[in-house]
Design goal:
40% helix, TIC32, SDR_fam, Rossmann fold, 11 strands, NAD(P)-bd_dom_sf, 16 helices, alpha/beta, binds NADP nicotinamide-adenine-dinucleotide phosphate, 11% strand, 2 domains
Length: 420
């Protein structure tokens, strides 16, 4: 919980930076006004969009020559134009690559090496998530081939150059592998490394992801793409109107709560809607009754962030003498600043009650400038000089999952990758 609050409040860690620091801020003291023959050179993969584009822009602004390996030279040229508009003296070199193809990576490397540039920084940032089962030209599952094997080969082929550059310039090289906190979602029981290298057998985690994406039905007969209407189609409660099921649905004035209330009402359930804003509640009622004129919707005021308001809602509800068959605790808020409820509890905790998953989407709420900060910090800051094999989150050293830290799995991965 502390971690989540630190993240949300952007509290700075030992580096002096936190989750809301931008790439520009964390590199403000890292300009490299070196003579051009000593200019740092960085390769940034996946720089045509997102975090990679911001990383390239900020490093170029700090005086680093950027080599951009791209699949699409047109997109690369647009990036170069954008960067040079802001930093006219920026040196941007575009070379073609497809990280899912071993042959293309080899071609890129020999082309890069023939330019005789030094290589100080390698940022393995490109990432794709293939939402269907597809294979690279080397017959390897596409996401694994692009994100991991491609960068592995690229690093292998450039390592000697980095060592040579470090020896010649006396400046240590840096390799930054961009990862994601999502790595910690992988459970040991679902991780079958051997299967990862055999395209025909997918590891469990991948299977789960593909099941989800393809909407494959589970034992209930429904899957990720089943709608609320579909899964309740056999559930119309043809009860006498004086004895319908009654459900309280919190957070029904927007999002999933609206749909939950609408579908339950359509199935004959009386819906009690606790709403902070009765006007929004009335709009919901109108919308539902337009579709299901016989729907019974009861609106009552509540603020889930206030004990007093919850108590007053409950006594009001109880005074109505309605039955209560279903209670759907759906409301959730994500407070992106540190604020407290009237009862002096942190607001998100007070409203959602440890509904921790509600905090997870917050991880995706960073701006691109904030998303690129850790990469730029690790690539340029004097504070990360000599740091090796560490994992950084929000510009501070952190712990990766125990599975990611497992030396024997790492060795197996290393050996089998090399064998490929
Ligand atoms: N965005 C987030 O919320 C987030 C969170 C945590 C970690 N990350 C990590 O940050 C990194 C960048 O993420 P992003 O969201 O900025 O990505 P993005 O906007 O989707 O960009 C992906 C980049 O990778 C390139 N790429 C994909 N497949 C390629 C291939 N076969 N060969 C060469 N380049 C290829 C794309 O090039 P094209 O233009 O050719 O498609 C694009 O430049 C990824 O490693 C991701 O896992 C992102």
């Amino acid at each position: 919980m502390k971690e989540a609050l630190r993240y949300l409040a952007g509290v700075a860690g030992p580096s002096g930076y936190g989750s809301n620091s931008t790439a520009e801020q964390v590199t403000q003291d890292c300009s490299c006004p070196l003579p051009s023959h000593h200019q740092l050179t960085a390769i940034v993969t996946g720089a045509t969009s997102g975090i990679g584009a911001e990383t390239a822009r900020v490093l170029a602004k700090r005086g680093v020559r950027i080599v951009v390996p791209v699949r699409d030279l047109k997109k690369g040229a647009q990036l170069k134009e954008r960067i040079q508009k802001e930093t006219p003296e920026a040196k941007i070199v575009l070379l073609e690559i497809d990280l899912s193809s071993f042959a293309s990576i080899k071609r890129f490397c020999s082309e890069f090496l023939s330019l005789n540039f030094p290589l100080n920084i390698l940022i393995n940032n490109a990432g794709k998530f293939s939402n269907k089962l597809e294979f690279s030209e080397d017959k390897i599952e596409m996401t694994f081939a692009t994100n991991y094997l491609g960068h592995f080969l690229l690093t292998e082929l450039l390592l000697e150059k980095m060592i040579e550059t470090a020896a010649q310039t006396g400046t240590q090289g840096r390799i930054v592998n961009v990862s994601s906190v999502i790595h910690s979602w992988v459970e040991r029981d679902n991780f079958y490394f051997n299967q990862m290298l055999q395209p025909k057998k997918l590891p469990m985690i991948m299977k789960e992801a593909l099941r989800y994406l393809a909407g494959v039905a589970g034992p209930s007969g429904y899957g990720s793409n089943s709608t609320a209407e579909q899964v309740t189609q056999d559930c119309s409660f043809l009860r006498p109107s004086y004895h319908p099921l009654t459900a309280i649905v919190t957070g029904a004035t927007s999002g999933i709560g609206v749909e939950t209330a609408r579908v339950l009402a359509k199935r004959g359930v009386r819906i009690v809607v606790p709403a902070r804003d009765l006007k929004k509640g009335a709009q919901l009622k109108e919308m539902i009754q337009k579709e299901s004129p016989e729907a019974k919707i009861v609106l009552l005021e509540i603020d889930l962030g206030s004990f007093a308001s919850i108590k007053s809602f409950c006594s009001e509800f109880l005074s109505l003498n309605l039955p209560l068959n279903i209670l759907i605790n759906n409301a959730g808020k994500l407070s992106n600043k540190l604020e407290f409820s009237e009862d002096k509890f942190e607001m998100t905790f007070a409203t959602n009650y440890l509904d921790f998953l509600c905090l997870v989407p917050g991880k995706f709420l960073k701006s691109i400038a904030q998303g690129a900060s850790t990469t730029c910090y690790v690539a340029l800051s004097p504070k990360t000089e000599g740091v090796n094999g560490s994992y950084f989150v929000d510009c501070n050293e952190s712990r990766c999952s125990s599975l990611a830290n497992d030396e024997s799995e790492a060795l197996q991965l290393w050996n089998q990758t090399r064998a490929l």
